[in-house]
């Protein structure tokens, strides 16, 4: 069992590429949703997993993640997730001793790029890299399942500009 504390940011520029130390192609599928939480299957080049994530309380949420056989992940993606599968390249980026993940989404989300950092606690300080822009941690438009739904309903690929033009709801009080 693990508490996930994550912050998400848009990218200001491509400067992160100079600090990238690896990349992996991933396919994520939404298996189910419950009370603000979700069950996600992920198939990467090096491993497959099934994760159960609770709704966030502030920046934190419980995450239970288990390795599964890649063939099982492939079958879940094909039979359980329908159109709620997103593909992305995840770059591992090291900046000032902190590890960031930069996700470049593909296909119907091909205009979206998000940098994420996982923290040890909600008030942990970390230096913002010069390539990081606006924080979107609490912006529901940038939650993966919402982006996938919006892309399905759109007649054109989703971009950051199109997402930012959509109305947003105020986050629930914590």
Automatic annotation (TrEMBL):
InterPro entries: CYTH-like_dom_sf, CYTH_domain, NeuTTM/CthTTM-like
CYTH domain sequence ranges: 2-152
Gene3D superfamilies for the chain: Hypothetical Protein Pfu-838710-001
SMART domains named among the record's database cross-references: CYTH
Highest taxon of the lineage: Bacteria
One matching Pfam family: CYTH
Organism: Rhodoblastus acidophilus
Coiled coil feature spans: none
Protein name: CYTH domain-containing protein
Lineage summary: Bacteria, Pseudomonadati, Pseudomonadota, Alphaproteobacteria, Hyphomicrobiales
């Amino acid at each position: 069992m693990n508490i996930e504390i994550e912050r998400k940011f848009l990218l200001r520029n491509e400067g992160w590429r100079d600090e990238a130390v690896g990349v992996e192609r991933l396919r994520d599928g939404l298996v189910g949703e419950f009370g603000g939480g979700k069950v996600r299957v992920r198939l990467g080049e090096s491993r497959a997993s099934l994760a159960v994530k609770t709704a966030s309380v502030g920046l934190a949420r419980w995450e239970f993640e288990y390795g599964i056989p890649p063939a099982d992940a492939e079958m879940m993606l094909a039979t359980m997730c329908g159109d709620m599968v997103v593909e992305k390249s995840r770059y591992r980026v090291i900046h000032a001793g902190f590890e960031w993940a930069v996700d470049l989404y593909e296909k119907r989300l091909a205009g979206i790029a998000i940098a994420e950092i996982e923290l040890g606690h909600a008030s942990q300080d970390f230096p913002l890299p010069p390539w990081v822009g606006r924080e979107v941690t609490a912006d529901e438009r940038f939650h993966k399942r919402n982006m996938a739904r919006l892309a399905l309903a759109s007649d054109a690929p989703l971009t950051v500009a199109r997402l930012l033009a959509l109305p947003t709801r105020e986050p629930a009080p914590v």
